[in-house]
Amino acid sequence: MNIAEIRAQFPILHQEINGHPLVYLDSAATSQKPRAVIEAVKKYYEWDNANVHRGVHTLGARATEAYEQARIKVAQFINAKSENEIVFTRGTTTAINLVASSYARANLKPGDEIVITPMEHHSNLIPWQMAAQATGAVLKYIPLQPDGTISLADVEATITPATKMISITYISNVLGVINPIKEIAAIAHRNGAKICVDGAQSTPHIPVDVQALNVDFYALSGHKMCAPTGIGALYGKKALLESMEPIEFGGEMIDFVELQSSTFKEAPWKFEGGTPIISGAVGLAAAIDFLNEIGMENIAKHDRQLSNYAMDRLSEVDDVIIYGPRNDRGGLITFNLSDVHPHDLSTVLDAEGVAIRAGHHCCQPLMRWLKASATARASFYLYNTEADVDAFIRALHTAKEYFGHAVG
To answer: What is the DSSP letter of 380?
Structure first.
């Protein structure tokens, strides 16, 4: 990876914030977009803009072709068996809600178990709360180890023959934990359960093979992997998608409509009612091309190296509390500076041109487990460098001085 060449492809990075070069360390919230993606979306609107699956005119045919080619690229990117196992959604949140509202509510009954973990993003927690309330199922949690990881022994102990659904994040957006999805999927299937994976943080950063993992559902967001906002996808095994009913009804998801009843298209189109996010799909396809050109193995290696470097540098700073495991983690570090609220810390860092995330990160139960009302988070991606980490550490020392701490 030539990081200088990669950075040159992201126009937004070449600016100053408050008189300092921008250091963007909030990619876990959303990634920046390379010029190839921006140009692909621009070209679509300037040249191909039309609705899909409807008109037979040239623009409509070109738009439909681009939209369906994007579906193929998503399928290839995560190694689905078929592009028909890919449902376009607004993102991970919508994808998980589709599974919880369609598959789970139709297949769960009182006394069945839904298993998740305390580290889940609200998008992978609240839908299951709602599904449990609607069906009478029981929501159970795999306990966390002191460093925030989970043990397979605890997974084995939590999942029982009554468990019908497991939903778990691949990489935690707070702890950086990389969960053993393949092993958890095997335990789930031995007990007759299905597994859904929140892939929002994993898909941009590590190679993903849904067939090798043998997961039943996998959700992803485009905006965290260099694509536009508002586009994502749900992977589902073909038989499961075929068995599920759509939860949104309207144009283009129908087969025949009578006055009193209707029939629907086959999967995945029956789940894509209304005009889809066509330009988003075009942008997602361009983002996948961009990531494939660099290589997901290279990106994963870069993330590990940068995260390890940042962990070493941050560990040298006094009065810093670091959350999550020290090793084998994703490309983010969540931390707090003693006696300083993360929002105040983030404000001072922004004055130095460094953008980090502060808050509960949509993980309030996890914050309570950490005994923290909020935390700060620095997250890294393919365009970040050790120089960015160094600037972050310098800004942190500036914040320590500002808030009255001795420089560590």
So the answer is: -
